[in-house]
Specification:
The protein has 6 helices and 14 strands. It is an alpha+beta fold.
Length: 274
Amino acid sequence: MMASDKTEEFWQQVLVCALAITRQVGQQLLADFGKVQASEKADGSLVTQADQWADRYVREQISAAFPDHGLLTEESEEVFPDKDWCWVVDPLDGTTNFTRGIPIWGISLGLLYQGTPVFGYVYMPPLGQAFHGFWQAPGDCPDGAFLNNQTIHASPDEITANHFFSFCARSLHGWQPDFPCKARLLGSAAYNFLMVAMGATLGGVEATPKIWDIAGAWVIVQAAGAIWVPLESKPLFPLVAGIDYSHRNYPTLVASRVDLVPKFRPFVQSLDIP
């Protein structure tokens, strides 16, 4: 079946599969929440046995449901495969929160077609929140962003001192006393961006997210009408077969409206982003 022939039935299968996998993973991770020890990877990020189990389980389930699709995952498959369809998996986004008992962490899935995300699913088990979206997906699939199956949109609000903007730990020095919003740190790259998609915050920045941090959220953010602004000159997509994406960062600013970008960008454009 060609991409243009993908039917509503195919996309329903994608959604149902993502829901089933993340629910099963989420149930197990909730049992381990705050109880596991983490070790430090070469890039300074943390990993636990829970991450590794979740990565293995997600890979097995996706391969069984879509044997012709490729996989790119944080814990094992880091080279982009030569496949039209590829799932990008973060089995546990927010590992530090997870190990410290902070309930902001989740499982993120992105489905790419010819290197560009077209479907995203992010499940936050402790919060009972499941986000999904379709964005310029081929075949019979309208665009849209959803939280627990209810349509979401980025906020239309003007900036006030009582609105929120999310920073990551590596970008917090971009906050200054004259920053136009209150600052928040959430500890999960995907959730940082999804808060803009659901209208809770007006913007967010991540200095060093990897492709598995953003693939699922990228779709949902744009389908919700928010603006994704790369803070580097290299194009985000399409990904290229044979490239190892484990060391590439995707510094990103997200804003709820295009006219807010120039109001936020001066504060984050000069960040020391590796």
